[in-house]
Amino acid sequence: MGYQPRNLNEKSTIYRYFYNLEVKYASIMKSSFLGLCSVLLFFSFSAMAQDTLVYSKETFEKKGQILPYRLLLPKNFDAKTRYPLVLFLHGSGERGNDNEAQLVHGASLFSKEETRDQFPAIVVFPQCSAESSWSTIDITGDFPNREMIFFEDVEATPDMDLLEGLLKQLKKDYKIDRDRMYVGGLSMGGMGTFELVRRNPKMFAAAFPICGGANPKISKKLRGPHWWVFHGDADEVVLEKYSANMVKAMKSEGITVKYSVYEGVGHNSWDNAFEEPDLLPWLFSKSR
């Protein structure tokens, strides 16, 4: 049967894996790049502070479990108007329950005045709990030769279950354009993007996973959305081959997929993806 996912009630392998990587990158930040990283962090958190003002703080509860999320409504929101929905899944470093950290990457892309003017939409940034993940994977080997094991068919993690419940609730609370629902995410959230579409193959019109991955065998269940996949070829955290393998398998299934590989870019390929001038026009042009 091969590798099987561990008991999700314990600290999972993926949690320990990403925790060790965060420690590794913390060490790097204390090296010769400290000054540059400090400047970048200053602007990043400044942007996040601004985003906390425009994204309302919300929570979704199911069977006593809580999923924090941030919500951005269109300017001049009209409850009678149908709007597209954008769901963005953060990476492992933004997990927790503060309902703020998930805004570090990507939130400012959708909160810009020109974006809100040109692409009015309901934007949602949920936050995964500290010791969970959006999808179940396993790890073998030692860094830097670790291999990720992606599963073809597993039960939803607790936070994925909450996420699906949140989507159902949002459809009840708002007039969402069911033909224009979009999902994207980075790293752990990129993996979660593949997993969410696998579990809901007819829900989304477009998906954009960044530095993620999945089991290529699930590709037959990914035909619904248009895809734009991103990765850096120097990524040591989530190897570029995991996206490349997915793109190859998806194309063999006749799926419409674009693939952007950034030469010399490491794990933070989301910076490059967010700077793509065609990303938002491409995303909001798609319909089921």
Walk me through the structure.
The chain has helices at 13-29, 34-54, 107-111, 113-118, 158-173, 188-199, 240-252, 270-274, 279-284, and strands at 56-62, 65-72, 83-89, 122-126, 137-140, 147-150, 176-186, 206-210, 226-232, 257-262. With 288 residues, the chain is an alpha/beta fold. The strands form 2 sheets. The chain has an 8-stranded mixed beta sheet with strand order 1-2-4-3-7-8-9-10. The longest helix has 21 residues, at 34-54.
Q: What's the main sheet like? A: 8 strands, mixed
The chain-level structural class is: alpha/beta
Question: How many helices in DSSP terms?
Answer: 9
Quick one: overall form?
globular
Note the run of SSEs as H and E.
HHEEEHHEEEHEHEEHEHH
Reading side by side through the largest sheet, how are the strands ordered?
1-2-4-3-7-8-9-10
Strand fraction band? Answer: 15-25%
Instruction: Write down the overall mean pLDDT.
Output: 88
Poorly predicted regions: 1-13, 19-40, 42-46
Helicity level:
25-40%
Q: Please tally the β strands and state the result.
A: 10
Radius of gyration: 18 Å
Gap from first CA to last CA: 36 Å
